[in-house]
Write a structure and sequence with these properties.
6% helix, 1 helix, mainly beta
Amino acid sequence: MTLPRRAWSVALAMALPLLASSPSAWSQPVSVARVAYVEGFAERSGLESDWGVLEEGTVVQIGDRYRTGPGSRARIDFRWMSVAIDGESQLSIPNAFLLSAELDHGRVEPYSPSGAMLKMVTAEASVRGSGRVVVRRRDGVTLVSVREGEFTVQRGVEEPVEVRAGHGLIVRAAGDLEVVALAPPPEGLEPGRDPGYVRRGEPVALSWKGEPGMAYHIELLGHTGEEVVLGRDVSGTGFPLAIPWEGTFQWRVAAIGDEGLEGMPSAPGVVCIVDQ
């Protein structure tokens, strides 16, 4: 049975003092959040269960692991923040008394408007802060791109590094940590402010100005522009995006640098999917 929002919020509030004070890991599942959105193929395994299909409304528990298929997306809502998991990624909620989320590989986008965020960890770094941040991990490298707010990134026991909006950090197991400016937002989106109309079932031809051989990340958002419903890493300056729903959507694109840091997103374009 799926817990209503108030129920899992109360459960989490009761659990947090224990998370901070108990000396060892949990032997039984403890609920801390819920799965608010799933698009495409995603799976979950837990302390007492093997991998199975992930569904919206699933209660998130300590010890859970989540993985997504190509082109898929899932979002976990905590009481005070959310974590979006993009395609071909794996995220876990470690079975420990200090609540955190661990990215094994892929791309996640934590968002915390309240001023508090659970610690996001990888094998190379830990990330804390407030706002919106993109965390990627590939080939033993963690890449942190801050879109909104301010975050601190720490490698091991070293001094934390402050990263503000519009900047990023590449973290390897060893070497210098240098905060760099993110790539600027792409321009020349088509469709842009004037909506592009496409029949349902037909791909939308998205394009923008940029380097033909460069990598980009495109995102499809709901009509309000607040919630990302699809995300894709692509190459070149155009992509035919299949949208499975009718309605009005916004879309945007961000450049991905040679080392993998994701730049700032463009101003949105508008797409309308119609039945006829």
